[in-house]
Amino acid sequence: MAEQQKIVILGAGESGVGSAILALKLGFEVFVSDFGAIADKYKSQLSARGIRFEELQHTEAEILSAHEVIKSPGIPDKAPIVKKIIEKGIRIVSEIEFAGRYNKAKTICITGSNGKTTTTMLTYHILQKAGLNVGLAGNVGQSFAKQVAEDNYDYYVLELSSFQLDNMYEFKADIAILLNITPDHLDRYDYKMQNYVDSKFRVTQNQTSADAFIYCLDDEETMKVMANNKFEARLFPFSLAQKVEQGAYATEDTIYIQTNKNNFNMTISELALQGKHNVNNSMAAGIAAKLLEIRSDSLRESLGDFQNVPHRLEHVARIQGIEFINDSKATNVNSVWFALESMNTKVVWIAGGVDKGNDYSMLYELVKDKVKAIVCLGKDNKKIHDAFDDKVEIIVNTASAEEAVNVAYHLATKGDTVLLSPACASFDLFKSYEDRGDQFKAAVKEL
């Protein structure tokens, strides 16, 4: 019986506290453990409900007496407490897996190395504007588990990272979207690309012929898997390079979406999101919308008036004719490729942070073509120097957002763009990529 079963939750952030709230409602005994400090807002949510918790430690006797552990996606499997849980044979699941057992709404699940937050927010915007009763969760929005406990949505749009997918087993997406797969987080996957690819494809697990899988026909890693595996779901590819019968494709100036007898087209210049990668994001979201039978006039309006998320190619200011762009969410090389590819000016590029096993070679041509100077923002900038010393005349080291912005401002001239697009995690100098982006924006406004 559920009331005798104990659920332990590792990590007391948004997903952990949400899981605790749902588990309590379902009648489980609940204990929350965080090795770090718990934010006041989460402590008050736990205390108000009488949920037991600890911070700054893991009490093994408490944790290892669990029937099941819900683990925050940020905690790696090599963490000592996680190893002990695995050794004891206690099942570890993600918040999404746990909440999915009790969710009756339809799910649109979005993953990919790049563009997933933008596509998730765009899909949510389309559904909400069309009048659907829709929740937003996963890597963005409020905890999925908390919403399952307290709300009554008909649809959820879920952004799923590979870390969340890793601890999902029975969960099923009604509509799965895989945008692309490029090297990222390889430190969590034994530096084996195939492990990371397998993780991303978990978004399709358990799908049936009643479900849909939306994917990029132009993505090399995706297509390798598609060629060697059979999928139960109905397939809807999207492409910038070739025409497709079912799915979406783009010509030079128009996107076309076709799902069964449902046709839609829109000129690319009308899309709110510009740049090739964003055409892909718009097509993926558009296919999902047409599968849900959203009217063409509503879809057209939503694709045209969407405002992108903060820290993703976010315009900050124009000062003395110099454009400042905050792309702090670009924590891998491929994200930077997309950012540089969309620039139509010379760029002073602010990069650096905690390297995740980056291979910068894919940026060489773009950097030679577009970047006039690199401003390093990180404690250890050796890899950036090694990669670009012979490709860019000026590379400068800085140790704070304020210093980086000041140096970049003096290196740029009228008509240039100063682009913060780090290619690295933020934890050497900042609390998070949001903190890094906010400090960048504040420094720009002080110029």
Overview of the molecule:
Residues 311-424 form the Mur ligase C-terminal domain. Residues 110-288 form the Mur ligase central domain. Pathway: Cell wall biogenesis; peptidoglycan biosynthesis. Keywords: ATP-binding, Cell cycle, Cell division, Cell shape, Cell wall biogenesis/degradation, Cytoplasm, Ligase, Nucleotide-binding, Peptidoglycan synthesis. The chain has 447 residues and is of the alpha/beta class. The chain folds into three domains: 2-93, 3-Layer(aba) Sandwich (Rossmann fold); 97-305, UDP-N-acetylmuramoyl-L-alanine:D-glutamate ligase, CATH 3.40.1190.10; 314-445, Mur ligase, C-terminal domain (Protein-Tyrosine Phosphatase, Chain A, Alpha-Beta Complex). It is 35% helix and 23% strand. It has 17 helices and 20 strands. It has a nine-stranded mixed sheet with strand order 7-8-6-9-10-11-12-13-14, with helices on one face. A six-stranded mixed sheet has the order 15-16-20-17-18-19, sandwiched between helices. β10, α10 (220-228) and β11 (234-239) form a beta-alpha-beta unit. α1 packs parallel to α7 (144-150). The longest helix has 16 residues, at 276-291. The protein is globular. The model has no long low-confidence stretch (mean pLDDT 93).
